């Protein structure tokens, strides 16, 4: 199967690794720059983006990751992972940086205290007729989608919670913890087409 790395600095990387393995990927955990070699795609998990950013820089991964993204590596980010992929992050902590790549503006912890964590069903035609059950855990919202990116899913109030741009995919929610595999399948489609052009 395709070789997919999971950024394993922090967060729920094990859950992603399990789903990807179930779907037939050869999964490896990425903690240092050398471990980016030979992967056909990368998942950036949920967690805490400010911590993930600090660790990525500390381990010398931030620049190699930016180079990989610029080079067209397929990358799927969930929640904190989406924040890492966003070109612009609002309500970041002081000094927090993202990797960028997705032409979007995201706002961290965008749902009020009552709604920091909630579940809802999303209609996502690109993934089929069955709605996607989405779990939000202090997730970000996509406040604006730039010309290069496309919204894939929105809440009923119109706020965007899933986006893609070429080989990049991001969701505010966590398919890796609900048994929802269609996002990972969709992502593996991008990985396969890049691995076997
Ligand atoms: N609130 C976290 C952050 O800003 C994201 C939460 C998550 O990944 N579940 O990075």
Please tell me about this protein's structure.
The structure is a single chain. 25% of the residues lie in helices and 31% in strands. It has 197 residues and is of the alpha/beta class. It has a single domain, classed as Rossmann fold (3-Layer(aba) Sandwich), CATH 3.40.50.880. Glutamine binds at residues 46-49, 79-80, 83, 108-109, 137-139. Glutamine binds next to α4.
Low-confidence stretches: none
Whole-Å distance between the termini? 15 Å
- The CATH topology: Rossmann fold
The CATH homologous superfamily is termed: Class I glutamine amidotransferase (GATase) domain
- Overall pLDDT level: 96
What's the helix count? Answer: 5
Give me the count of strands: 12
Oligomer: single chain
Using the 3D structure, state the CATH architecture: 3-Layer(aba) Sandwich
Calculate Rg over CA atoms. 15 Å
């Amino acid at each position: 199967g395709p070789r997919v790395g999971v950024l394993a600095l922090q967060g729920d990387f094990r859950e992603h690794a399990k789903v990807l393995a179930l779907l037939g990927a050869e999964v490896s955990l990425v903690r240092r720059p050398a471990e980016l070699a030979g992967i056909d795609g990368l998942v950036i998990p949920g967690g805490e983006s400010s911590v993930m950013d600090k660790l990525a820089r500390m381990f010398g991964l931030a620049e190699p990751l930016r180079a990989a993204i610029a080079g067209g590596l397929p990358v799927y980010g969930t929640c904190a992972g989406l924040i890492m992929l966003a070109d612009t992050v609002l309500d970041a902590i002081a000094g927090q940086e993202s990797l960028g790549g997705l032409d979007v503006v995201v706002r961290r912890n965008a749902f009020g205290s009552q709604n920091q964590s909630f579940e809802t069903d999303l209609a996502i035609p690109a993934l089929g007729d069955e709605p996607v059950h989405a779990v939000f855990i202090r997730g970000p919202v996509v406040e604006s989608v730039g010309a290069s990116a496309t919204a894939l899913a929105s809440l009923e109030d119109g706020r965007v919670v899933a986006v893609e741009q070429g080989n990049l995919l991001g969701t505010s929610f966590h398919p890796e913890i609900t048994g929802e595999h269609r996002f990972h399948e969709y992502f593996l489609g991008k990985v396969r087409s890049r691995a076997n052009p």
